Amino acid sequence: MQNSNDDRYFKKDGRTVNKNYIAKKHSKEKDKKLFSKWFVIFLIFLTLASIVYSIYSHAYMKISEIYISGNNITSDAEIIAQLGNPIGENILLYKTDMDESNISKLPYIDKVSVKKVFPNLLSINVDEDYPTFFQNSDEKKYYISNKGILLGEDLNDFDESLLKEIQGANLKKAVGENFTGSEASLNFIKAIQVFSYFNEVKQLNLENKADIGIMINDIDVKFGDLNDIDYKLKILDNILNDAREKSITITSIDLDNGENPIVNVSPDSYSENLNY
């Protein structure tokens, strides 16, 4: 029988309660509090902080490559020089605004875009505007940009040997505007610049839109009219590449014959294997 003076028991809410039971219950409540929602939130925060720190400090997120595109006149070295030294910088913290501003100060750079490509690449795309053509008119030489914009009569600090001559275009002499009102001619001179053989072009004859002429080194190319420009330029590219691979000397090409261009080959390098 329970002793009312037994120190192991006491009255609570009209009930006799064992002190050992109360002690165990309090102990469990303390254990539960160790894993309260705030403790869990702290653990999550600590984990996220560790992840973020690892991302920012890990070599995997440091710039190690620079890819440059769109530049024909401006060298990669000139562009990279405007960046300072981004190699080794954390790509997340790296600011591109200043780079775009610095690169745009270079001669012939019209537009520039610097983008971060995760985890470690800077991609730089430039749009250049530079002298590419000239046309003689009224005993004066007028310079034209790669975009077909008339630059005027003055050419500062540019290698004229890189320029291609345009003949016969109906030249509009408003500096800063298209050199011609012919949309087809503008499309033609822009499209031909994509191909590698453009570096070997000496002259473009735009006098007759139905009989465009191209002089590529010593090869006289009869381009025909300005229909199907892209198709005919690709055909011309295939012919020139094939001739180069076979060491064949071509004297003239007639593209104004639909799908069957006529290729005249020097007798000294004639090959029966030449098929187009």
TrEMBL record:
> PROSITE patterns in the record, alphabetically?
POTRA (PS51779)
- Taking every annotated instance into account, which residue ranges of this chain make up the domain POTRA? 61-129
Question: So where does this one cross the membrane?
Answer: 34-56
Q: Which GO terms describe its biological process?
A: cell division
Compartments, as annotated in UniProt: Membrane
| InterPro entries registered for this protein in UniProt | FtsQ_DivIB, POTRA, POTRA_FtsQ_type
Keyword Cytoplasm among UniProt keywords: no
Keywords, A to Z, come to:
Cell cycle, Cell division, Cell membrane, Membrane, Transmembrane, Transmembrane helix
- Protein name, UniProt field: Cell division protein FtsQ/DivIB
